[in-house]
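User: quick one, fold this
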Amino acid sequence: AVYNFTVESDEVKEGTDAYSAVTDLHIGDVIDLEGMMYWYNAPNAHINKVTVVKESVADIAKSEGTLTYEQFMAAKDDTPVVIEAYVQSYAYNSAYGNVNMFLADYDGAYYAYRAVCDDAKAATLSKGVKVRVTGYKGSWAGEVEVAEGCSFEVINGYYIAAATDVTDKLGSDDDLAAYINQLVAFKGLTVVASKAPDGSEVPFLYNWDGSGAAGSNSDLYFNVSYNGSVYNFTVESDEVPEGSAAYTAITSLSIGDEVDLEGFLYWYNSPNPHINKVTVK
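Assistant:
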């Protein structure tokens, strides 16, 4: 059976994630929808969230010369690579003319480090859009990436990956490594104290050593416990700026709070999740 859905532009404006997702749909795409159940003689759902579960087969095929996720991960460092994937998060630095991007396709995830970018190219980026990235395979402190100086172009396609719950993988770097750069979730964690420079116990630190200050858009570091072990997580201020929901949530934490977290599984000698969503239970 066929059903008709609506995106009302006064509720979901042009340029928003849901509006852009619908304008980028292909016939044959498999999608999940959320919205308000309005009624106009019959159900007339007003959609405000669109998740592309899988694009139609014709549209997800890799272009000639493009690596699959498996081929990319198997490539040696300094090998020329071309990938096609979808932007999940990005941080543009206009002063340095580059952008860091967490990317995903239907098989895995990638990190493009300091891709060459200017204001005009940055304006073409948004969450979910598809990009072709050209550069060299690289790694640093365990992080796997398309190395600094890569280039990119936006191409047709749209996909936002759902978070994968990896809570039960905490404590095993080998198990977590399979999810590197993916959007992951950690659930039922307890906030434990960090040690401030003055020796006091605090729920988080501005910068890893507590050298930052409120109002300086510092990175945030905080500790959580799960099954008796303690883990350290990060909020990167260039990805999640001061004033955003996740940044504010961390600065409002108390020792002992129970939290669910989502973020990208970056790697720095060991798992170093970059958190972008915080739910205090």
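User: anything notable?
Assistant: The first strand starts at residue 30 and ends at 36.
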